[in-house]
Amino acid sequence: MIIPIYGYGEPVLRKVAMAVTPDYPNLKDIIANMYDTMYNAYGVGLAAPQVGIAIRLFTIDTSPFSDDKDLSNEQQNQLKNFKKTFINAKILK
Question: Which one of 3.30.460.40, 3.40.50.720, 3.10.310.30, 3.90.45.10 gives the CATH number of domain 11-87?
Fold first, then answer.
């Protein structure tokens, strides 16, 4: 299901996102909907707050970049196969 993407100025984009707990309701559906929404918008990444959900979760799929002829075959393969969902990610350094 495609979810509306929130734009600049929406209050949810300024909130501190909550951590996702193992029992977070409908988490698999939220993730699936975020991928549908991201692909529909021709995006390569989407954070939950961008679809109105103030939780620490984002999706990424770099496969569109794998066609870049300026990259080596190894780099193209890495990008082609990088599709991930990040939950409660932290920047360590």
Answer: 3.90.45.10
